[in-house]
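dumping these here so i dont lose them again. two proteins, back to back, each one seq then structure tokens. dont judge the mess
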Amino acid sequence: MSQLIYLDNAATTAVRPEVFEKMKPFFIENYSNPSAVYSFAGDTKEAVEKAREQIAAVLGAKAKEIYFTAGGSESDNWAIKGIAEALQEKGKHIITSKIEHHAVLHTCEYLEKHGYEVTYLDVDADGVVSPEAVEKAIRPDTILISIMTANKLPALSRMAAEDSKKYMGNLQVLQKIEKLGIDTASFETPELNWKNVYNRVSDTMQKENTFSDKISFTGSTASQLNTLIAQSTDAYITIESSTVRMDEPISMKSGIALDAAGVTFTGSTDDRVAQAVIAEDCTNFALYNLNLTAGCYEYGIYIIRSNTFTIENCTISNALYKGLVMMGENKNFTIRNNTVSYNGNGAVFLNGNISNGIIAGNDVVDNYGTRNLTAGIVMTSMEIDDYYTAYNEFKDEHLYNLLDTPHDIVLYQNNVKHNNSSGIYSDGAYQIYIVENIIYQNDKEGMCLDYGTFGAYVSNNIVKENGGRLRQSDEDLEADFVTAFGRLSDGSSPAKLPGISIDNSAYNTIVNNNVTQNYGSGVKMVRSAYRNIIMENSVSDNNKGKSDDFHFFGIEIGHESTPDEPVKGLDFTASYENIVCRNIVTGSNYAGVFLAVESYCNDVFDNTILGSEWYAIE
């Protein structure tokens, strides 16, 4: 093995010999608890107090003013909560900025839930809070102003002008952002953004998704129910029948809610209806407690060009194709607390200009279909030729021309598990917010941000044991160009897939996730990934699929210069101007962080990397 040149001292550094010698007695001799009362603790306590006095002397402070914590987050938490409690009689108003460390922001959010008011100040393009804004925000009851002196993250756009023109001047995803007129500064406050979307949609639905009349249905067929729906206006219809036969699709209209608690829908799989429920060009409707499990439909719930609707507490299973479909322009919706499972060709499918939505608390599990667009939750910008077919033919189009795409959607606290494709697949969506989901044992990627996705915020998710490729057919592997690698003894492909994949995508923020035990790397920038931030994640043991031919990494910054087949809708470049920082990368990864050939102007710093088989950074 050639001599190792270690370039990761910003993250973990060898202890200086004199420091090690000074600390050695406390590792192997005086290792007692300094707060204990037994005599063995005396020397340790004396050493701690001496250190406290030395630090106080350097700072010009009193020894009793020096406290030791486990790290910066604990210190921030302690200081803010301590001041808030101590000064609550004087006031309960706190001022901070929108770009503080999560240790500050999360503590402020906690205090907001306990009666405090927090003002979050904007920053300018350089990440600076103006003194005038601070002065204007101060009130008589302000007790604390907490604003960092410096933001240590480099600017996302940091190449020299000549290099930027050379490497990034013609990139398709950046052209897409420009054509949509999105200000890239809006990506700098993703935590605030997702909460604004969530609150805005929640407020809209509470005000507008209401029904005044109450009607009961006692018939036995979907056609009879459709007659009642057609005759009703602004009505909440409760189905009181024990069974309803699906002799035709249930056809929703504006101003109608259906509640089917306790109802069994029946029908024949030999004579399926096109959809169990269809809503086309509707405004203000709702579906509650539908138990669609009979499989006598090609699609479960199918929505076309509709606004202001709720789907809640439904079970959507055993569709021939997909469980829940939205096509075309749809706006203002909540998809909440549903179970979508065992559908034949994917689960939740959003295609078109779909915005201002909340998808929360759902179980999206055990769905079939192994291609990208049959993932558990799909958000795609594919051109639509047929609104009644949720899988239009793929057209090789420049991705910057595919502008009708899902955006401003929150995926929150869903369980996305055991699907035969990926858990979540974004095919060109933008400003989507994937927060606090459990993404587990999906056969392809846990999550894929692909084909022009930008401005995504992926935070506080558990992404575990994805990418095993145990259920893909030979045809599937051929479509993914990995047939040549054969199969392992368990029947799976050795070309495993990562927990989180980023491909031809930009300005995505991946922060505070637990990415663990995935088969084919933890977070992988496959190629053509630009200005993404991978920060403060726990990334562990993501070499689960290693074999004689493949090994995998904690975090990859990738490059693929040659396409598997000619395609104009993707760029094939190295990855530029990404930031990988403050992650804890542990376990049996081949290397903690991998930078592929020609990767340029990427910043990798302040990561803790332990236990890699060969390198901290390769």
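---- next one ----
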Amino acid sequence: MSHLFEEYKIGSVTLKNRVAMAPMGHVHAADGGVSEQQHAYILERAKGGFGLIYPSAHTVTDKYEKPEGSGNFLFNYSQAARLAHLVDEVHQYGAKFAIQLTPGYGRVNKGNPAQTIHVSASDNRAFYYPDVVCHTLTVDEIHELVACMGKSAALAKMAGVDIIEIHAYGGYLIDQFMSKVWNRRDDEYGGSLDNRMRFFNECTQAVRRAVGPDFPISVKYTPVHEIEGGRTFEDEGIEIARRLQDMDFAYMHVDYGCYERWNLAIPSAYEKQGAQLHVAERLRKEGITMPFLIQGKLNDPVEAERVIESGLTDMIALGKQSLADPYWPSKVKNGRVDDIDFCCACLECLNHSYPFIRRSSCAINPRTAAEREYKLEKTAHPRKLLVVGGGPGGMAAAKYAAQVGHSVELWEKSNRLGGNMNAAGGPDFKFDVRRFSMNLQKQLYNSGAVVRLSKEANADSIKEFAPDAVIVAAGAKPIKPRIPGIDNSKVIDALDLLSNRIPTGEKVYVLGGGEVGCEAAAYLDSVGKDVTIIEMQSEILSTANMADNARKGLEDLLGRTKVRILTGTKLTEIKDNLIVCENGTETQELAYDNLVLAVGFKSDHTLCDELKSAGIKVFPIGDYNSPRKIYYGIH
């Protein structure tokens, strides 16, 4: 029997398996309580088989921070009543419910300073508003927050919550008190480690007094921040872990990084699988034996099973993967791994969560946070549909249409499915995208849709096919800049390079320092090439629409390479053995073996226009409308 799906006992609470839905800040009500949308979103994960459900962290007062810049709030009976309703329904699916309680986010709260009082242990700069200096909490204000922690814990217990977790990690407010880098106080809450942990200890004691001696309390903790002056294993990281082990916590929820290194806390596509396992391994090596809950790209079922079986951890938490496919646990348990919609680690879930007026969702799962609105139900009126294009948007449209009962045929002009995902998932460091594409192709074939490769679509062939409607997902084409010599045989498009791993010479220049250009440069470096990026802007990735985590992850990846970067530089001519560049008033001639183009994409709407003129019902989607991302193709 799989260790993942064994029952696991936490004090008086028995989990049906060892798979938790990680806490994430999604779709709460205006007052910070549970909204109907959040209720449906969380319930879907309980239906999908998760043994333990976390919503976002619950702040215990709105005196300083407001819901529009935070996760959930819990400090009154209205919020508690809606929480109780959700907990009751989650229990009906056999899952247990945990919440994190926090006195606040402090310096890392996203709330606008016009509505938010940014507070901290000391006069730190607000992370998102560097011109704002945080209010240093007074001793009386600290005592008030401690009392609020106890009150909210009592409300959580009344609501039927099974486990309460102390939110003491990742540079949030409690961690700001615990850490030397953010705590410069000279009173009883600053200075020595004993003093810096005083706020944490008092919060924990208040929660314990409110819930009684037998109620399970866990702690989320970050042993290493990976910033200058931050916590390290050697400098207090292990010492604090030993202190936590000596307290009566049910388990430690292990974390890594902080907001300055957010790609470590919430890993991007550029971080390896099991990105936080080394933290747990070091803690075990140092004699920390208490139960662990660990996270960080553990959605490979084989790896998830291994870390449980080895004893490294007692439970795993899936965050982004639970957004991509809420039924991951039940699919793994029943051997349906090919049916899993694997998270592609694009982090559009975060990119779309701010500003808060936009609905946060998942690039590959349009139903995330829209479970009530989007239902896949069998159609009463089957249609004959043609999908043109086998990229992510076309494959998803064909799959879903076939699953609900339409007669679907997909035409792809090339000899392979995937579209631009073949380039996005080409390098080994983009395995997450490649795996998602592979499974989507399997699901498409299993859906009943007919797939025709090397099939060109034009107005005549579509008229002959006579569909009731056409979904045009023909993607976008790379831009070819008007530069003298651009047709030189040494010039390669980045999509061709990444999709087909086209061989190059030793000295390669990449034109364009956007997302694609940087990935192409990192790939070329990984295969031993001498690589330079040429970018007209003053810095790379300046116009890239990326989540902060993804941007930091790609910057970190490039930082580990030997890639050189020429910013503020314009390519003016391509010769047989030289490229000519201008940087201000300076002109350079640079020897090269190959030049890779990564300067963007453009859409061609000719096919849609022809079909509309012929009176055919047509629905253009994805990059065919405007070159963007997987998110827009599938949504």
